[in-house]
Design brief:
alpha+beta; Fumarylacetoacetate hydrolase, domain 2; 3 domains; 7-stranded mixed beta sheet; 13 helices; Fumarylacetoacetase_C_sf
Length: 531
């Protein structure tokens, strides 16, 4: 059996999870009962296709969805790595020729699938379309009927099956293929995907893990992490081959079922929140992108209304728990008004930070997706022992037109963030990076920030007094009431300055109220005549 070592394949990082660069990669078309049920067909025997070794990619990398295409789909799979040569081996003898197993992702571009007619040469053979790794599991210690496969998209579990759900046992693939050609050490067999495979788009993070939870030591491959990016370049040349094309059949198979296909999908669309949920929006079009719900008139009112006044009006309406406590502004004189876009950190755990902290994580996705007039609100559990953003992310938010940032955690690069000029509220400065205390977990969901519940699209207003959260349906009413109260308070202050006693004036009794309303009516009439 060959040994695992990087020297076997030089320094090419694509193959560091494998013993050698594979001479052959053979993939099974349809192998899990759950997938067969979803597809409405159950094969009597296995069928296969080849993938080039140039399609292999390492964990932690990016996969490009080519420009002008729509249907990039992930497929979490168990990869078998051949340890000793197999030629015409029996079913009973086949498993001993498997050296290792690990996780794989058999990405496919359904836009190119129809003309391949089952060969999948173009739809699945592209560079980077076969991530494998990150660690090998010794197959000799495993029961091949008790191996688990799981896939996550943006942290959401979307595939969870075991080899007990296979139509054909793993050893059958080895025995069957060995009838036709020699399986050589280092060759890889991709053993098919269960139900749950679906479409992903730029910004999505797909993770695949294979393990044997019932085996001694519960060996696991670790999470194979791949981030989807938008491809750039010239696209496809019709003079040398067919162009990408999609129809309802390809959409249904890419998404997993007809009912999962989003309404009127377009070229370049993708769920971006991942998974097989067709109703999941892209980061650029999330319901969190609620800046448009603030009219210019309402925004102007909120810019004039003090947070203290807004708080008073919300309290009158039974809402007392709407202040984000413990945060202070970097720019006390700057007013913050916008709609919430939320980001959540969970307490650091080293294995979770390894899987979620790097690459195009939730933090980066949130700052890349924030829209004009939106406020990034971060749940950091009041933990000030690490930064939750730095100057680069503040610059990114500012460049995208964000209205501000609110975090109940720390800020690193404090002076540099302050110099960017975007309104930022934080519990204070801290030099440590995110991973000391936090794991960036998910975005655009209901969070808790500074003891207040914040939902995407909530109206956020801040000034030197602090930050308040206003339900969108109440924003206009509360702003009008707060401004009216400001006028009243200013009139009362002027009377106190004239020497009147506070008693009976603040709050106003009936006599003072009548006087105030009379003066207000006269002033309004005068203003009307002037117009």
């Amino acid at each position: 059996m060959i040994e695992t070592h990087q020297e076997a394949h030089g320094t090419d990082p694509r193959f560091f999870a494998l013993p050698v660069r594979p001479g052959k990669i053979i993939a099974v078309h349809l192998s899990y009962a759950s997938r067969a049920e979803q597809r409405g067909r159950r094969p009597a025997d296995p069928s296969y296709f080849f993938k080039p070794s140039s399609s292999v990619a390492a964990s932690g990398g990016f996969i490009e969805r080519p420009a002008g295409t729509e249907l990039l789909a992930f497929e979490g799979e168990i990869a078998l790595v051949i340890g000793t040569a197999a030629r015409s081996v029996s079913l009973d003898d086949a498993w001993r020729h498997v050296g290792w197993i690990t996780a794989a992702n058999d990405f496919g571009l359904y836009d190119l699938r129809a003309n391949d007619k089952g060969s999948n040469v173009r739809s699945k053979g592209r560079d980077g379309f076969t991530p494998i790794g990150p660690r090998l599991i010794d197959a000799r210690a495993l029961d091949p009927a008790a191996i688990r496969l799981r896939t996550w998209v943006n942290g959401e579990l979307v595939q969870d099956d075991t080899t007990a759900g296979l139509i054909f046992p793993l050893a059958q693939f080895v025995a069957d293929l060995s009838q036709h050609f020699t399986l050589e050490p280092g060759d890889v067999i991709l053993t098919g995907t269960p139900a749950g495979s679906s479409v992903v788009g730029p910004g999505d993070v797909v993770e695949v893990e294979v393990d044997a939870p019932d085996a001694p030591g519960a060996p696991a491959s670790g999470r194979l992490v791949t981030t989807v990016s938008e491809g750039s370049g010239p696209g496809f040349d019709a003079s040398v081959g067919s162009l990408p094309s999609v129809d309802d059949t390809q959409r249904a198979e890419a998404w997993g079922a007809p009912e999962l296909v989003p309404a009127a999908p377009g070229v370049g669309d993708g769920p971006a929140a991942g998974g097989s949920g067709a109703d999941r929006p892209t980061p650029e079009s999330s319901p969190a992108a609620g800046a448009a719900s603030l009219s210019s008139e309402l925004r102007t009112k909120l810019e004039k209304a003090p947070v203290a006044g807004l708080s008073q009006q919300l309290r009158k309406r039974g809402l007392n728990n709407v202040t984000i406590d413990g945060v202070r502004p970097l720019h006390p004189s700057a007013k913050l008004v916008g709609t919430a876009r939320t980001l959540r950190y969970v307490p650091n755990r080293e294995d979770l930070f390894k899987s979620h902290g790097g690459g195009y994580n939730a933090q980066k996705r949130a700052f890349d997706a924030v829209g004009e007039g939106e406020v990034i609100v971060i749940e950091a559990r009041g933990e000030a022992g690490a930064g939750t953003l730095g100057d680069v992310l503040a610059i990114r938010a500012h460049a995208r037109g964000a209205a501000g940032i609110v975090t109940d955690g720390g800020v690193r690069d404090f002076d540099a963030v302050k110099a960017v000029g975007i309104p930022v509220y934080t519990v204070g400065a801290h030099p440590a990076v995110l991973g000391r205390k936090h794991v960036p977990w998910d975005a655009d969901l209901t969070i808790a920030c500074g003891g207040a519940t914040v939902q995407p699209g909530d109206v956020i207003v801040g000034d030197a007094d602090g930050v308040i959260v206003i339900p969108p349906a109440l924003a206009e009413e509360v702003a009008d009431a707060a401004l009216a109260q400001e006028d009243e308070d200013a009139w009362i202050a002027a009377r106190v300055a004239e020497g009147h006693a506070v008693d009976g004036l603040f709050p106003m009794n009936a006599e003072w109220r009548a006087r105030y309303e009379a003066e207000t009516a006269r002033r309004a009439a005068s203003d009307e005549e002037a117009r």
